[in-house]
Amino acid sequence: MNLYNTLTRKVDEIKLLNPPTVTVYTCGPTVYDHAHIGHWFTYIRMDTLIRTLKANGLKTNWVMNITDVGHLTSDADEGEDKLEKGAKREGKTAWEVAAYYTDEFIESMNELNILEPDHIVKATDHINDQVDLIKVLEQKGFTYVISDGVYYDTSKFPRYGDFAKLDIDEQQAGKRVELNPEKKNPTDFALWKLSPKDSKRDMEWDSPWGKGFPGWHIECSAMSMKYLGDTLDIHCGGIDHIPVHHTNEIAQSEAASGKPFANHWMHSNHVMVDNQKISKSLDNGITLEDVKAKGYTPLDLRLHVLESNYRSQSKFSWESLASAKQRLLEIQAMAVLRYQAKPESSDYVSFALSDVPKEVLNMLNNDLNTPSVLAYLSDVVTQLLTVGIEGDMVDHFEDMLAGLDELLGLKLLEIKDIDSDIRELVAKREEARLNKDWEEADKLRQALLDKNVAIEDKATGPQWRWVAVR
RNA sequence: GGCGCCUUGGCGGAGUGGUUACGCAGAGCUCUGCAAAAGCUCGUACACCAGUUCGAUUCUGGUAGGCGCCUCCA
Questions:
Q1: What's the CA–C1' distance between A361 and B48, in Å?
Q2: How much is the pLDDT for A108?
Q3: Are A201 and A188 in contact (CB under 8 A)?
Q4: Do the bridges between strand A212-214 and strand A189-194 make them parallel or antiparallel, or are there none, so unpaired?
């Protein structure tokens, strides 16, 4: 498959180190607050990547980290630890905060039908791995110690900043944030932060350098290399990670191993709300709970994400979410045709059912072109809703739905049939209609609508669909 | 100040050197007992100014506007 590679700045064919296995690492959440739709855009896109890789016959080994320690409120390694800050805010320990938001995150992943990563790894479970990696860097001369911790000396890594095309000398580091005067270079970052002498942290560990906690960047390098080896196939993350987090990961990992850290880098662009980025400081984060409270399902949001390309700066609005919901309802109306097979169809569709998932896969293989997938699907849906499904087509039709579900995660095959009561109402209405008892027929149609079922009278008989699918 | 990206019809959003993507919303029509979240049709979109070209929304240069990163952040 072809995928844009931040490393080369062009669409590359993905080359694997050990086919048919593909190793993927995704920078996961920092679990100190609710995830917002920006996170979900990113993780749904990662999920689409994984689904596409699997559909290509590859065996995925997917690692996602949970940052539950060490992520400071400033990437310049100043400020508070987010977990400790969250703990103060909520009157809990940092451990409790982390556990709460980790559980919530995983529950939301399930609701959004994001596949479960092969390994979900917590930073706090891998302190030793991180300490070991820092030791290696220390032995190789990439570190120095100052009063508040162990730092990586970026001047020792000549390629530092190449990945993000950073012109270090031109950066105005420190313009907006006070720099630690002990740091040798503005871009140097903490590998191990020492606990303050006058206070005890909820989370702290012993280390050769003293009691403290790991820097934010070291966890991804340590866990990635532990589970996936020195070099991995695809590293994913939000686009904001390019200049700092991923730049630092590369510096640490490649300095330690002497090998390329990742062959392919995929970055999800941001989603804008009211033409602005979602951020803590603007307090404009819409959560999955907010989405559900407005009457939308997690799958509505999922479809909305598929409507845009992961590389473009996308926009979120309630209006476009409503649009996505309508679009999904049409697709879902097609899916329940499998319960409504007819003796014969009035016409033919212009495609083979078995080709539909293949066609979708082709589009996904082209740099995850999900908008084109939906355009194509729209044609498929329209034709099938017009023509209907014949009895001997049901197996092929269900295979098609299964193929689409694997790729798009829309749970089309999980949509329930109407129960016997509703089926009876449908039959009664049709009977009344045939008897030209229009009043009764319309009454029954309304009764069905109250049960979220809409009826369309086709030449071949009534066809139902759900008007709200949970 | 430095670096990078973007600008498509009311909204979202693909794509292409010459031929209507697609969806939502809107308008008209059709089927229908009436309907339909059904079907069909429509709006004659590609920021602006130059250049290259037989021909540019698509390439090049510039202008304007927006956004992102260099704080937090997916």
A1: 39
A2: 96
A3: no
A4: antiparallel
Q: First and final CA of chain A: distance in angstroms?
A: 33
Distance CA A142, CA A153 (A): 6
Average pLDDT over residues A298-320: 92
Contact A270, A238 (CB under 8 A): yes
Write out the two tokens for A86: 């969250």
For the cut 60, the answer to whether the pLDDT of residue A192 exceeds it is: yes
Rounded to two decimals, the ipTM of the complex is 0.92
Distance A103 CA to B74 C1' (A): 18
Distance of CA A217 to the CA centre of its chain: 20
Residues of chain A (303-332) having a beta carbon less than 7 angstroms from strand B: 307-309, 312-315, 317, 319-320, 322-323, 326-327, 329-330
* Residue among A403, A291, A372 nearest A41 (CA): A291
Per-residue pLDDT reduced to its tens digit, A421-448: 999 999 999 999 999 999 999 999 999 9
pLDDT at site A350: 83
Of A209-213, A368-372, A389-393, the least confident: A389-393
Rounded distance between C-alpha atoms, residue A359 and residue A375, angstroms: 12
- Gap between the Cα atoms of A84 and A400, Å rounded: 49
A372 touches strand B (CB under 7 A): yes
Residues 83-122 of A with CB under 7 A from strand B: none
pLDDT at A148: 87
Percent composition of chain A: helix, strand, coil (DSSP 3-state, to 5): 45, 20, 35
- Burial profile A438-464: b = 16 or more Cβ within 10 angstroms, e = fewer: eeebeebbeebeeeebebeeeeeebbb
